[in-house]
Design goal:
single chain; 68 residues; mainly alpha
């Protein structure tokens, strides 16, 4: 078994990136917005906005790590 040592922030970033990628894939293939469906369904549309912001920041952070 391979052990991957990452800081907790890295785990959060990679999970957010995975959620964003899965969401975009579902939007394109099945026309289902998973983040909006889950957070909008319970009446938390402002939380969905924060989730999109966090996903975008995670992607920007990952790109910055690649190039710097």
């Amino acid at each position: 078994m391979v052990k991957i040592h990452m800081k907790p922030l890295q785990w959060v970033v990679y999970i957010l990136i995975a959620v964003g990628a899965l969401n975009w894939g579902l939007v394109e293939v099945l026309n289902i917005n998973l983040v909006d469906s889950i957070l909008g369904w319970v009446g938390l549309t402002s939380l969905a906005t924060w989730a999109y912001t966090a996903i975008g920041l995670a992607g920007a952070w990952a790109l910055a790590k690649i190039f710097w």
